[in-house]
């Protein structure tokens, strides 16, 4: 395990991915050691009244996230738990993906269980089969939720009870009701990325191209 984690330390280096330095186990609980984030999570920034976020910055954020995701997928790494909480900002407003290394710990039996409020970001196919392995389309789905969160500055499913949202995701293919609340281009990208059939979702490279236009 130590050798594998060490390989990630030196192999995964990208402008939109947080550097991983190691993992510390305290009373059998894993704690990641990563580079520092100055502005904290994207969740906090989006929900804060302190910041005015213009459209150009919103698209730059989306581009950073899709670029980081494309790099991970190109490196054969699946995040599996993408959300605004796992997007951190530095002082230059650059977003870097964090907790990407957690998938390896989960495979080794050291992963952490997700809270209900975190599960609403997870692809429905994983919610229906918790034992299934996350795939690239799962990350693409989560990106769609992050995209609408950036442009609405709200949680993708609003203030709905997480338990109810999770149930509807499993049985009804629930999606955020944001048509008309976000730019048409955002809606078009999101709709493709959260397609009910995982195999019909675009890959990360295509998403990056769509966002970068």
Automatic annotation (TrEMBL):
Transmembrane segments: none annotated. Gene3D superfamilies: Transferase(Phosphotransferase) domain 1. Pfam families: PK_Tyr_Ser-Thr. PROSITE patterns: PROTEIN_KINASE_DOM. The keyword Transit peptide does not apply. This is Protein kinase domain-containing protein. GO terms for molecular function: ATP binding; protein serine/threonine kinase activity. Keywords: ATP-binding, Kinase, Nucleotide-binding, Transferase. InterPro entries: Kinase-like_dom_sf, Prot_kinase_dom, Ser-Thr/Tyr_kinase_cat_dom, Ser/Thr_Kinases-Pseudokinases. PANTHER family: MITOGEN-ACTIVATED PROTEIN KINASE KINASE KINASE 20, SERINE/THREONINE-PROTEIN KINASE TNNI3K-RELATED. It comes from the Eukaryota. Signal peptide: none annotated. SUPFAM superfamilies: Protein kinase-like (PK-like) (SSF56112). Residues 1-213 form the Protein kinase domain.
């Amino acid at each position: 395990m130590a050798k594998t984690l060490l390989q990630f330390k030196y192999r995964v280096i990208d402008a939109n991915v947080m550097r991983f330095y190691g993992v510390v186990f305290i009373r059998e609980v894993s704690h990641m050691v990563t580079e520092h984030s100055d502005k904290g999570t994207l969740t906090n920034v989006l929900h804060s009244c302190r910041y005015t976020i213009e459209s150009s910055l919103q698209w730059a954020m989306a581009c950073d996230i899709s670029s980081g995701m494309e790099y991970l997928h190109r490196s054969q790494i699946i995040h599996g738990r993408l959300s605004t909480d796992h997007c951190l900002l530095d002082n230059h407003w650059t977003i870097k993906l964090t907790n990407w290394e957690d998938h390896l710990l989960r495979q080794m039996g050291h992963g952490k269980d997700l809270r209900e409020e975190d599960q609403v970001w997870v692809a429905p196919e994983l919610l229906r089969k918790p034992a299934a392995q996350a795939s690239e389309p799962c990350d693409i789905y989560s990106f769609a939720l992050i995209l609408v969160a950036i442009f609405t500055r709200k949680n993708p499913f609003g203030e709905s009870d997480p338990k109810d949202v999770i149930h509807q995701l499993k049985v009804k293919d629930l999606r955020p009701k944001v048509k008309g609340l976000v730019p048409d281009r955002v809606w078009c990208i999101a709709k493709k990325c959260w397609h009910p059939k995982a195999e019909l979702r675009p890959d990360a490279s295509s998403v990056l191209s769509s966002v970068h236009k």
